[in-house]
Design goal:
- The complex is a heterodimer of chains A (about 260) and B (about 400).
- Chain A is of the alpha/beta class.
- Chain A has 8 helices and 8 strands.
- Chain A has an 8-stranded mixed β-sheet, sandwiched between helices.
- In chain A, about 45% of the residues are buried.
- Chain B has a domain of about 180 residues: TIM Barrel.
- Helices cover about 45% and strands about 15% of the residues of chain B.
- Chain B has an 8-stranded parallel β-barrel, surrounded by 7 helices. A two-stranded antiparallel ribbon of chain B has the order 5-6.
- In chain B, strand 5 and strand 6 form a beta hairpin.
- The radius of gyration of chain B is 20 Å and the shape is globular.
- Classes of the chains: A alpha/beta (about 260), B alpha/beta (about 400).
- Chains A and B meet through helix 5 of A and helix 10 and helix 11 of B.
Chain lengths: ~260, ~400
């Protein structure tokens, strides 16, 4: 087991829980709408050779949504403060889904503190026209539809009936935060596509081959907007390749990170 | 007591319920036949006009993308009624201002109706039920804050007569606000706001508006109305008058008990047809996480099946008043005394397949044999006496209404 500490970083009145796991060059990991991922096996694998820095976004895992928070831009500026306060140097910026969108927003502002960018099944852009549903409407999908769109192996999905009351309430409040950050424009920033050219660090997109939330075509469109970016597709995985194929995911991350 | 005739203007001619996922949001409109719809709109308008002729007041509302309510723009129907009716007060309950992007437009629409009706408008503001979130595409978190901000802008627009003002709030922005027409009633039409808890009731009471409650029944009504009374006293330093409170129930009056009960069974279409899957009834940010988690856990939240309804149970809960005129009066009086009195009774007296003739027969019995007694009841209201009566009535056991309450109360 990698060493692990949790601290709370106070940023101008907003408290951000920060897990530090392992030792080595820093990896700032930004979780998606399903909440923290620091406890997952892939994180253990990465933290063998890197220090994983994993903040919990306000609103997730029982944290309150700050009164003035309205959308993802509030997270962007919160994390600019966090990055400064940690004085990150040459860190790898890693984002999952909504956290990938967040990572891209940070990277277009400045890559000065980062050496590499890794986006996992990320949202954030709108490649299609107004009538194209580029990103599955997760808030209007039935449980069955969501299960199929999200997972290659649906048996890995969390089961509401098995959750304790406390877990279910966290699940419910995580959904509120997810909605707050992504509601409109839905899961994207129309301006982001015109800013992605500013990303001047090596960038890898890791994608689950069977992702039905944002498909491979979506990933390819995102890749094409980031100069020099490449894309690594993991078979037998949906929207969460780091959960469904943790070893393969860690291997591809480490391969990219070390070169 | 003022009584308000209400129908939600259903389009009930639907295919087998098993053939669709939801009656709201995603039911394809190929199931709406425009010719049938035209007849229904006219029938509902005729019902409201009949209510006017019987001395009842009128209440209407709006919903979107649903067969439960064909009216997606209540002000349009109210505009017609402003012209077609003579005496009835015209209540819209209400404008879903947390979901509408232009409060000033709402202020204009309401002012027009108020002027056209020569001051008969009563203007309600609602947060809206959870299934309105998808059609409105408004994130429902902090919906109550949005409602009050829209309210502040609208009332300012109604009461500003010396030229434009600007408004730059958290949720809404408007510049050079200077509405034409201004309202007929001064300073502005009476305002109603729906409430579903003691906390929301206190916010309505603070503004002195009429607080309206839908189908909270015995289990929850005391908490809500007590919240209003307490909030009013704290804000204004005086006891409220009972005209500040309103309650909505399903009501059917028959010549015989059976006739009344048969009609009430038809009214229950409103509840029994409400097949809505969890993604529409429990959108993120609408309910508190506690309530959202309870709904996720709930036995029918994962199936998309409607809340089961049973007439005897709904009558016991105080959601339905039905029977002969004497019985209906007694049921309303019992509820009235239990909750400490209210001055407005909103009566959903048509729903589903209930016909024009059936509806009018019930309305006629109500207006001739129940309404006069209810007016006497409220005319003789005495706060001290009411407290004594209420004190003698223990709290009704808090039966489980979680799903029902969360879906219908607002």
């Amino acid at each position: 087991m990698a060493s692990e500490t949790t601290t709370v970083v106070s940023l101008h009145g907003v408290d951000v829980p920060l897990v530090r796991k392992g030792s080595g060059p820093p990896v700032l990991a930004l979780h998606g709408g399903d909440g923290p991922v620091d406890h997952l096996p892939f994180a253990e694998a990465i933290s063998g050779s890197y220090e994983l820095l994993h903040p919990t976004h306000p609103g997730f895992d029982g944290m309150l949504i700050p009164e003035h928070f309205d959308n993802l831009q509030d997270l962007v500026f919160l994390y600019l403060d966090l990055i400064d306060s940690l004085d990150l140097q040459d860190a790898i910026l890693l984002g999952f889904s909504m956290g990938g969108w967040l990572a891209a927003e940070l990277a277009v502002l400045s890559t000065g503190r980062f050496s590499k960018l890794v986006l996992v099944d990320s949202v954030g852009i709108k490649p299609g026209g107004p009538f194209d549903r580029d990103i599955a409407d997760v808030f209007a999908s039935s449980a069955d539809e969501l299960l199929k769109a999200t997972w290659h192996d649906p048996s890995l999905a969390p089961i509401v009936a098995d959750m304790t009351d406390a877990e279910l309430q966290t699940f419910a409040s995580d959904r509120v935060a997810h909605g707050l950050y992504t509601w409109e424009p839905y899961m994207h920033n129309p301006k982001l596509r015109y800013r992605l050219h500013r990303i001047d660090i090596p960038t890898l997109l890791i994608w689950g081959e069977n992702d039905g939330i944002v498909t491979l075509d979506y990933g390819a469109a995102l890749r094409d907007l980031i100069p020099g970016a490449s894309m690594s597709v993991i078979p037998e995985a949906g929207h969460h390749p780091h959960v469904e194929q943790p070893n393969e995911f860690a291997a591809r991350f480490l391969e990219f990170a070390s070169h | 007591m003022r009584a308000w005739f209400f129908t939600e203007d259903a389009y009930p001619y639907l295919p087998d319920e098993d053939s669709y996922e939801s009656i709201r949001v995603n039911l394809p409109n190929k199931h709406f036949d425009p010719a049938t719809g035209a007849d229904l709109y006219n029938m509902y308008l005729d019902m409201w006009c009949a209510a006017d002729e019987m001395g009842l007041n009128i209440m209407n509302n709006e919903h979107h993308q649903t067969a439960t309510c064909m009216v997606p723009a209540a002000p349009i129907m109210l505009g017609i009624l402003a012209r077609e009716t003579k005496n009835a007060r015209l209540l819209i309950l209400g404008n879903p201002v947390a979901n509408r992007s232009q409060p000033v437009r709402v202020a204009e629409e309401m002012a027009l109706i108020d002027v056209l009706s020569k001051g008969r408008l009563e203007c309600g503001f609602v947060r809206g039920v959870p299934y309105e979130i998808a059609p409105a595409n408004v994130f429902p978190y902090r919906g109550t804050e949005k409602l009050w901000e829209a309210h502040d802008l609208i009332t300012k627009a109604w009461t500003t007569h010396d030229g434009p003002f600007n408004f730059e709030g958290r949720w809404f922005h408007a510049r050079q606000v200077n509405i034409w027409p201004r309202p007929y009633q001064q300073p502005h039409p009476p305002v109603w706001v729906t409430m579903g808890s003691a906390g929301s009731a206190a916010q309505v009471a603070q503004r002195g508006h009429i607080g309206a409650v839908f189908l909270a029944g015995y289990p929850r009504i005391r908490g809500i109305f007590d919240g209003y009374r307490k909030g009013y006293l704290e804000s204004h330093g005086t006891e409220m008058l009972i005209d500040r409170l309103a309650y909505c129930a399903l009501i059917c009056v028959g010549n015989t008990e059976q006739e009344g009960l048969d009609g009430a069974e038809k009214l229950l279409w409103y509840m029994s047809s409400n097949k809505v899957p969890p993604q529409y009834s429990n959108p993120p940010g609408y309910h508190s996480p506690e309530m959202a988690a309870t709904m996720m856990r709930g036995s029918n939240s994962g199936t998309g099946l409607p809340t089961s309804t049973n007439l005897a149970e709904q009558m016991a809960r105080g959601n339905v008043f039905a029977g002969t005129p004497d019985q209906v009066y007694d049921q309303i009086k019992s509820f009235y005394e239990y909750c400490g009195g209210f001055g407005n009774l909103m009566m959903m007296s048509q729903a589903g397949f209930m016909t024009f003739d059936e509806t009018l027969a019930s309305m006629k019995l109500f207006s001739e044999e129940v309404y006069p007694r209810l007016k006497e009841l409220t005319a003789s209201y005495d706060a001290g006496q009411m407290q004594e009566i209420r004190a003698g009535l223990p709290d009704v056991e808090n039966v489980d209404v979680s799903s029902l309450a969360s879906e219908f109360v607002r």
